[in-house]
Amino acid sequence: MTGRKLVVFRALYLAASLALVTAYVGEAASPIRQLTNTTASNLRPSLSPDGRRIAFQSNREGPYHIYVMDSDGGNVTQLTSGDSDDRHPAWSPDGKFLAVDSGDTVKREIWTIEVSSKRRAQVTTLGAIASFPSWSPDSKKLGFYLYQAGAMDIWLTSPEGSTPSRLTRDFASESNNQCTFACHSPAWSPDGNRLALSDGDSSRVVIISALGGAQTAISPTEERSHFPVYLPDGRLVYVTEHVTIDQSWTDLWTVDPASNAPRTELATQVQAQGPFEFSSDARQLLFASPRSGNFEIYAVTLDAAGKAALATKPERISPDLSSAASTRQDRGFSLPNTAEPYLLVAGLLAFAGLGVESIVRARRRARGRTKP
Question: Which residues of the chain have pLDDT under 70?
Answer without folding.
Answer: 1-29, 315-372
